[in-house]
Amino acid sequence: MKDKIRPLIGLQRVPLHENIPLDTPFSVYIFPTNYCNFRCKYCAHSLPNPAFREQYGFSPETMSMEVYRAAIDQITDFPGKVKTISLTGQGEPLMNRHLPEMVAYAKERKAANRVEFMSNGALLNRNNSAALVEAGLDCIRISLQGMNSRKYRDVCGAKIDFDDFVSQIAWLYDHKKQCEVFVKIMDIALEPGEEDRFYELFSPIADRVYIEQCRPVYSGVSSTEGISTQADRYGREHKKRSVCPLCFFMLGIFPNGDVYPCETIYRPELLGNVMQDRLVDLWNSEKMHSFQLRQLTEGKNANPRCALCCAPDDVSQPEDELDEYAEELIGRLKEKWS
Fold it and tell me: Residue 186: beta bridge partners?
């Protein structure tokens, strides 16, 4: 069991500062939908719809296959191979009925080394699990919201038959073929003393299991306001980070095709749209260069939307830290862009 207790992040990382600037992003997050069937207390979707729109400036929507195919086709234009396409956004990917088709298209086009998504898993059943596996899905990351049906109602307001839910994950694991099955839970979704039960229940039916620590990811969500970010969600303490590394190795594509320099809900800088622009041009655009340079020279808080975001202190890995290399990178980027 112990060999399965590992964070659900990619563990084979390179020092980001040694590889900047990248001619091809390491990862592209494509959002199949921004709708969610859960209202988790620590998530933006816990807000009523008007408050959600006011706080984040957009309404949930679902990606069409036309927009999706345009995004995938453009990913293949990069000079290198994207490492990961994550069909994960600010919602539940399984709410898009085209998800297996989306996985299959990305695999057919050989758009990335790895195609995966994060899910609450509540909509998993044998039919769509089998369809996703047959489509070539490389990894599913399932995020639990409790260890019984009562806790699910408390945390996310969803009515879940917990025993059936576990059996669906077990069935997927037994029929997963090439697909890795990762299962995690936030510490606030556990009752005292449930840690061992989580590992004992899910280690036999998952490739990795992990308990993450909740962080204040979403502004306007009162239940997380007092939580510190001096340690990341994996419990690793660190100095406060000024430079956000996300924009140096990823792109985020919202359901309408809008492209941003990261996958966060705050959408700090609109770069363009896949229906009018090419991703490779946006990656090398003056807008992107200016955004990256401002991160290095002024820090993330210089952008009012980035100032709301705790991603550098929450999900960024030690290998991605850029603060101490900022001056070196500024010179390197200016020389490259000139």
Answer: 212
